[in-house]
Amino acid sequence: MWGGRFSEGPDRILWDFTVDHSDRRLLADDLTGSLAHVAMLGEAGLLSGEDAGTLAGGLQEIVTEAKQGTFRFLDGDEDVHSAVERRLGELVGEVAGKLHTGRSRNDQVALDLRLYLLRSGRARIAALRQFCLAMVEAAEDAGETVVAGYTHLQQAQAVPLAHHLLAYVAAALRDIKRFEDLAGRMDVSPLGAGALGGSSLPLDPDRSAELLGMSGRFENSMDAVAARDHVSEYAFACTQAMVHLSRLATECVLWTTTEFGWVTFSDALTTGSSAMPHKKNPDIAELTRGRAATAIGHLTGLMALQKGLPMTYNRDLQEDKASLFAVDDALAGALEAMTALIGNAEFHPPPPDSPVTALDLAEALVERGVPFREAHRAVGALLAALADQGRTLPEATVGDLAGIDPRFQPADLSLTDPAGSVGRRRSTGGAGFGSVREQIRMFRERLG
Ligand code: ARG
User: Fold this and answer.
1) Ligand 1 centre distance from Cα of residue 18 (Å)
2) CA of 315 to the centre of ligand 1 (A)
3) What is the pLDDT of residues 67-97, one digit of tens each?
């Protein structure tokens, strides 16, 4: 492909060190790009109608081979681009040499990556939606089950289990939006930028973009071949979604402990211990958390890869693919596994067993005009007094309340029930039953 000025062929050491097979995943996208390029060359008069037809026919044959899984990469193929050109030569002969007219592997690989990301982004969005639906269903199944909501991993306020589960849907919907947004920036064709400076041939980059169904062409040919911010951005979208899944994973691990006892995962989605017969381990959740860590590493790697590069293409950029595919695969795998784990989980959390209704008592005083800070102190004093006698909030009596603050009323005792506390909660978007119903309705509508 580039041997003209060389007196000897590549050394094995060079080959082994520089060739990276991870770009084979771009085969379908490379063919899509080449078909559009050939069509543009034909329309621009840079290829005769006959040559354009021959090249397109050969490329179509390779598309079929790729689809059927019969396309063979050879040891001598430096990358996916040279493999396609080599195969095209085998199929249509010398005219294959015209495919690379007005094109460089630099704009070619830049295009392939964008096409790949547009495609995989749609797949990730679909998988995120499935995850959201499984979470919404789990929330619906939870009905009016009330659990302790936590801050600092200390029981804080009573909340519906459904509200807790739906928090992850709210986050995942933003992850979906991120993938949708970045697709808009990704949808730009670099074809026609050539190696870095365009071409003396009358190429038509606008037409190439149109043929590819992309929203437009590059604005600056040097940027077109040098830019990889769309790769970082995509990797960030994957990694952020992984981080959200990882937080859920941590909770799954906690919830399934004997100590929490909130959930039972399906036998088919958990593993056993080779030593301890009683064990049932949440490996899906643990590996999701573990792979979120590796994803963060790859994202960091992608940023570092770009920071020291002069314009324009540098071979360093070849390394972007291994990292990108690693984060993309991590998310695809984790989404499928976590969706299954939640979709087959049985929730049975115990009611909260600490004074999660303390804030309710304070708010009763607030409604009678007591400044919140004063109300806070009064309830704190009540809890301290009860604790001194080895008692808890639900055991408080009318006398206990009156002894702390005369503005407490006997009916306030009923405020100490966690389910009642949730039942009274009415702030918009808060952890009340009405809000949960509204979220389920709204999220279902957004999920289509
Ligand atoms: N395999 C290369 C990559 O992935 C393709 C571009 C090669 N360009 C070049 N000028 N050597 O980055």
Assistant:
1) 10
2) 6
3) 999 999 999 999 999 999 999 999 999 999 9
Q: Phi and psi at residue 342, in whole multiples of 5°?
A: -70, -40
**Nearest ligand 1 atom to alpha carbon 78:** 1
Q: Tokens 């619906």 correspond to what residue?
A: 140
CATH number of this structure's domain 3-101, picked from the four choices 1.10.275.10, 3.40.1280.10, 3.40.1640.10, 2.60.40.1180: 1.10.275.10
The helix (run of H) or strand (run of E) holding residue 369 is none
Confidence tier at 275 by pLDDT (50, 70, 90): confident
Ligand 1 center from residue 113 Cα (angstroms): 12
- pLDDT 10s digits, 125-136: 999 999 999 999
CA 254 to chain CA centroid, Å, is 23
Ligand 1 binding pocket (C-beta < 6 A) is 23, 79, 105-106, 109, 313, 315, 317-318
Q: Which CATH number is associated with domain 111-200+225-347?
A: 1.20.200.10
Cβ atoms < 10 Å from Cβ of 79? 24
CA 227–ligand 1 middle distance (angstroms) = 14
**Domain limits of the chain?**
3-101, 111-200+225-347
Reported as a pLDDT band with limits 50, 70 and 90, residue 274 is confident
DSSP string, 155-223: EEEEEEHHHHHHHHHHHHHHHHHHHHHHHHHH-EE-TT-TTTT--SS---HHHHHHHTT-SEE-S-HHH
The best mutation among 109, 228, 306, 324 to test binding of ligand 1, ranked by most ligand atoms within 8 Å of the C-beta, falls on 109
Which residues are the active-site residues? 152, 273
Q: Say what the pTM is.
A: 0.94
- Please give the pLDDT value at position 227: 98
pLDDT tens string 408-447 = 999 998 888 889 889 988 899 999 999 999 999 999 999 9
Distance from C-alpha of 51 to C-alpha of 42, rounded to nearest angstrom: 8
| Ligand 1 closest atom vs CA 317 | 12
